[in-house]
Amino acid sequence: MPPPPPAKLPTRALFWDIDGTLLVTGRAGMIAWERAFAAFTGGRAFPAVRPDGLTDHQIAAWVLGNPSPYETPGEDEQTAVAGLVALYEAELAGALPLRQGRVLENVRPVLEWVKDARPELLSWLVTGNTLAGGTAKLRHYGLSEFFRSGSLADQGQAQAYPLAGSFSSRVEPRSNIVRRALQMAQARLPGLRAGEALVIGDTPHDIEGAHAIGVPVLAVATNTHSLDELAAHHPWHAVAVLPDADEFRRLVGR
Ligand SMILES: [Mg+2]
Question: The pTM is what?
Answer without folding.
Answer: 0.93
